[in-house]
């Protein structure tokens, strides 16, 4: 069933609100190109809205009670925010869960080398990427270098107008006959995604270092700017991402083009929805996780015990902890797995089934299931829960649509929904449709961003 284009429903007041949300979201994309940067901005905005560190509250001997707003951060890459409601926590929470990691290139632990008077940084790609899309673009480096004494050095290169950018070379078309004959997945190999970082040799070096004079010059620059040595790369987390700010897209400015919209578009709209909550009856929670693009693994991914432990600590701070109450709190919760969906692209219509596709500008998307090859790896929400979410969206005049991720057997994908469902809670995927998902620059509709924020707030209020 085709649902109306959201743009057609907007009043002048709606358009003003929409542009406000879009402006805030573009800013978030620009200041949060790594998980650590996202967490820093999330904490900043949460504290401005009255949230306080859970650890600080406990340290000060304060109990948690209805109305309190707290957050917990893990390893600067995962965060849970709670607005405590009046109802018993064991009756469950309304949870918005999104991920803040995005496909990128990670600098290896021993990355720096010189070859034929050019200096490079060796990389390993992170997440699902079309490798050929990541060459011949201006790139930036974001992240941290941690020295042996524990000093954390923040690194950002390539974003300011006066900054140099980094670059990955590609073979010129004149010599690319054999390359062009390869399959797209083989045209650019992962080991060739090395970052060009310098070409000027350092003068007056001893004979044993003259063969790597360009590399030595790069090390000199890094030492002068950041106070680090080559060995400090061993304990660095440096990410290579597209340089440049998110921009309005289209002559009508109806879309946003930018890096990392999968899944920061859902993460940020989930955060906005939570921060706007006032005195909820049922505890509202926003959980923003790492590592989704590589299977939700590790201490900061959804498969970790971070969230379960966090809820246990919240119960304990309320004087209500028991193992049974923790299990009930998780089982009785309702969640939106706030993750993006593939937007229908008429240029590649053969990959989609039009009746069950997500369209830009028609509102937030409900994916009853994801997965691949017979829904493998999917949560597949039950019909009663889908009906409840539909009612909530309709009651709050949220524009929404339903979709699958492309034609059957064409491909597929997954989210964190099935992991949360292991607790027995009800979960459905619900997010914004994206064009060119996982490309260095992705495109979303401002209308869908706006409807997502409305949808998430409606869910927190009434789920």
Automatic annotation (TrEMBL):
<dbReference type="Pfam" id="PF02127">
    <property type="entry name" value="Peptidase_M18"/>
</dbReference>
<keyword id="KW-0862">Zinc</keyword>
<comment type="similarity">
    <text>Belongs to the peptidase M18 family.</text>
</comment>
<keyword id="KW-0482">Metalloprotease</keyword>
<keyword id="KW-0031">Aminopeptidase</keyword>
<keyword id="KW-0479">Metal-binding</keyword>
<keyword id="KW-0378">Hydrolase</keyword>
<dbReference type="GO" id="GO:0004177">
    <property type="term" value="F:aminopeptidase activity"/>
</dbReference>
<dbReference type="InterPro" id="IPR001948">
    <property type="entry name" value="Peptidase_M18"/>
</dbReference>
<dbReference type="InterPro" id="IPR023358">
    <property type="entry name" value="Peptidase_M18_dom2"/>
</dbReference>
<keyword id="KW-0645">Protease</keyword>
<protein>
    <recommendedName>
        <fullName>M18 family aminopeptidase</fullName>
        <ecNumber>3.4.11.-</ecNumber>
    </recommendedName>
</protein>
């Amino acid at each position: 069933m085709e649902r109306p284009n959201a743009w057609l429903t907007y009043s002048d007041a709606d358009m003003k609100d929409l542009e406000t949300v879009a402006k805030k979201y573009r800013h978030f994309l620009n200041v949060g190109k790594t998980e650590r940067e996202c967490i820093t901005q999330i904490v900043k905005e949460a504290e401005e809205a009255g949230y306080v560190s859970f650890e600080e509250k406990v340290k000060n001997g304060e109990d948690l009670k209805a109305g309190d707003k707290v957050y917990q951060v893990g390893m600067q890459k995962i965060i849970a925010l709670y607005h405590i409601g009046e109802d018993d926590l064991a009756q469950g929470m309304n949870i918005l869960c999104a991920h803040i990691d995005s496909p990128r290139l990670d600098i290896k632990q021993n990355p720096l080398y010189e070859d034929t008077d050019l200096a490079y940084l060796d990389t390993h790609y992170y997440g699902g990427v079309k490798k050929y899309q990541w060459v011949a673009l201006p790139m930036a480096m974001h992240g941290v270098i941690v020295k042996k004494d524990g000093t954390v050095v923040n690194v950002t290169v390539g974003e300011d107008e006066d900054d140099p950018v980094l670059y990955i070379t590609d073979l010129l078309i004149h010599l690319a006959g054999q390359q062009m004959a390869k399959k797209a997945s083989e045209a650019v190999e992962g080991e060739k995604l090395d970052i060009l970082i310098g070409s000027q040799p350092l003068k007056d070096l001893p004979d044993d270092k003259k063969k790597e004079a360009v590399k030595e010059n790069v090390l000199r620059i890094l030492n002068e700017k950041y106070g680090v040595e080559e060995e400090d790369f061993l304990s660095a987390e440096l990410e290579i991402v597209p340089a440049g700010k998110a921009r309005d897209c289209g002559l009508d400015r109806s879309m946003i083009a930018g890096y990392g919209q999968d899944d920061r578009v859902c993460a940020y709209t989930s955060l906005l929805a939570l921060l706007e909550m006032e005195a909820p009856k049922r505890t509202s929670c926003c959980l923003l996780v790492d590592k989704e693009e590589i299977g939700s693994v590790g201490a900061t991914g959804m498969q970790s015990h971070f969230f379960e432990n966090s809820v246990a600590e919240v119960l304990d701070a309320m004087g209500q902890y028991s193992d049974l109450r923790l299990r009930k709190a998780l089982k009785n919760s309702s969640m939106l797995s706030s993750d993006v969906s593939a937007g229908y692209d008429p240029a590649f219509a053969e990959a989609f089934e039009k009746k069950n596709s997500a369209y830009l500008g028609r509102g937030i998307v409900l994916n009853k299931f994801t997965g691949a090859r017979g829904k493998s790896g999917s949560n597949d929400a039950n019909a009663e829960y889908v009906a409840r979410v539909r009612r909530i969206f309709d009651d709050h005049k949220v524009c929404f649509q339903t979709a699958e991720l492309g034609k059957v057997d064409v491909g597929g994908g997954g989210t964190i929904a099935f992991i949360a469902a292991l607790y027995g809670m009800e979960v459905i995927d619900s997010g914004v449709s994206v064009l060119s998902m996982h490309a260095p620059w992705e495109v979303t509709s401002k209308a869908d961003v706006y409807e997502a924020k409305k949808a998430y707030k409606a869910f927190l209020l009434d789920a």
